[in-house]
Amino acid sequence: MVGSGKKQAGVGLARSADRAGLTDSAGLAWEYAPAPESRDIVTIAPEYGLFIRDEFRPAIAGGTFATINPATGEKLAAVAEAGPKDVDLAVAAARAAHEHVWGPMPGSERAKYLFRIARVLQERAREFAVLETLDNGKPIRESRDVDVPLAAAHFFYYAGWADKLEHAGFGPAPQPLGVAGQVIPWNFPLLMAAWKLAPALAAGNTCVLKPAETTPLTALLLAEVCQQAGLPAGVVSVLTGAGETGAALVRHPDVDKIAFTGSTEVGKQIASAAAGTGKKLTLELGGKAANIVFDDAPVEQAIEGIVNGIFFNQGHVCCAGSRLLVQESVADAVVDRLKRRLATLRLGDPMDKNTDIGAINSAQQLDKITELTAAGESEGAERWSPPCRLPDRGFWFPPTVFTGVSQSHRIAREEIFGPVLSVLTFRTPEEAVAKANNTPYGLSAGIWTDKGSRILWLAQRMRAGVVWANTYNRFDPASPFGGYQESGYGREGGRHGLAAYLDV
Ligand code: NDP
Question: What is the maximum alpha-carbon separation in the chain?
Answer without folding.
Answer: 74
